[in-house]
Design a protein that fits this description.
This protein is mainly alpha-helical. The chain contains three helices and no strands. The termini are far apart. Keywords: Membrane, Transmembrane, Transmembrane helix.
Length: about 80
Amino acid sequence: MTNKAYNRRRDDTQSLQRKKKLHAESTTEESMTHRAYTEEEMTHITYNRRRNDTQIVVVVVVVVVVVVVVVVVVVVVVVV
């Protein structure tokens, strides 16, 4: 192994060890405890859920309308 490759491998190993250490520090008991949401956070969560539900409903309605139009066009073409 060349000196350059050895240094790169050593740097990668040190970097991995640093990442593991940081991860271990970030998952301590203190950071893993659950806290209650504030009223403002709950407002944002509720708004985002409603918005997502509305987007889902709009997509479903558009898909149903497109399918109905295609079926009607196919029936008209076959009958005529």
